[in-house]
Amino acid sequence: MIKIVLDALIPGDSKLDMPPASLIDFKAYENKYGIHEIVIKFLFELAKVSNYEYFKNFDELDNNQKMKGLIQIHCLLIYK
Asked: What does the alpha-carbon distance between residue 63 and residue 77 come to, in Å, rounded to a whole number?
């Protein structure tokens, strides 16, 4: 699901020859910085928000809903 999140943030643009964020080696980044547990918790919370707010899995949301869900998670993490 992390690739879907990455593409929601940076979808890429074929007209500008910009690849989507999912093409980066996020697993290597995750391993290098030891953030596996953080990523798991983030994705778990994002799934909860998606299901609670929209009664859908994150990957089933439209782009607007995905961004709203990501903003909600950001606010939850900042103000926790």
From this structure: 21
